[in-house]
Amino acid sequence: MSEQQIFVLDPSGSDPDAEHQALRERGSATLVDILGVRAWSVSDPALLKQLLTSKDVSKDGRAHWPAFAETVPTWPLALWVAVENMFTAYGDNHSRLRRMVAPALSARRTAALQADIEALVNSMLDGLDALPAGEVADLRKHLAYPLPIAVIGKLMGLPADRRTEFRTVVDNVFATHLSAEEQAANTAALYALLDALIEIRRAEPGEDMTSLLIAARDEEDGSAFSDAELRDTLLLMISAGYETTVNVIDQAITTLLTDPCQLAHVREGRCTWQDVVEETLRHQPAVKHLPLRYARIDIPLPDGQTIKTGEAILASYAAANRHPTWHEDADRFDATRPSKEHLAFGHGVHFCLGAPLARLEVATALRLLFERFPDAQLATEPTALKALPSLISNGHTSVPVHLRPTSSSVMRLKSRA
After folding, report:
1. Chain center to CA of 33
2. 10, 80, 137, 374: which one has the fewest Cβ atoms less than 10 Å from its Cβ?
3. How confident is the model over 183-203, as pLDDT tens digits?
4. Are 377 and 408 in contact (CB under 8 A)?
């Protein structure tokens, strides 16, 4: 494939649906430019699942990406490939790191957070309930945004007075419109906050995840996290447990308020809140493209092309989730569809350990929101909502809502009917 045919991904993520459609039309895998790095974008779900479970595909750029050393110093997404945790580990090292993290995200610990999550959501809804009649509420800012950072903050033992700082720097990890210099400064600020958290929990250990990870030892070889692995594992827990969940709550609320029939399905018993969560994850996954993986050998593709040894691979989850060979009428949101299979949490050995917690948070937020405000309506036309300026993060800059009907919102609803 010639250089002229490489598809350049939009750093601003301004029209993701059109971009994903274009990727699918170019075949099961196609060469793309992602902020100056060439990679194979894979949008066919069958091929993507195959690659995600293949031992011939690695996430360790240091070992298996020849361009690693020259790319990392100047690439805005360097943090996504340079961290030292299970996100970028391969083989036995990945297994070791995952074994040490898994107990901190066990089913028991996740289920024990139910009451805390409900209390947090209700507290946020109390604040929204106090707004004057007719005032517009931004549900991304006042619900989707603060809930996950509060949950992950509690889980990790993050001091309450540092959560705003963490939220800002983690947001910038997902931003793809920043320069390499701006991202480097953000990374330095993020690591300074993580070092401070580790210092606090070394001095005052508790039952939080940070304390557990500091004390963790691998059950097979007795090893602990290195300093870099510990810091980067905390980074992974915070970023994966925060920004992604924000986006799923955002997208679910937006969809339900755009298509009241979907909300009626829940209220009339044709589906559950869990169904809404899964269909949101399929239809609008929190992460559109996930950098990067690398071919350890030449990998022949079904169309005759070859991913050469050492070439980068980009998992294009959002495009794959709506592939027409996987789901009927794949572009349509339907919470009642029998199969909602998706790749929003990955696939294979790197499947997200925090998936049960994210599902719990989103379902709880939706249930309590629509119990409290059953007549909530979008305060703008859906087409006026602005996408986040990111080719990775899939959400909106704001979700303006009338929590109770106003005369103008009623008229707008009638005009759509």
Report:
1. 21
2. 374
3. 889 888 888 989 999 999 999
4. no
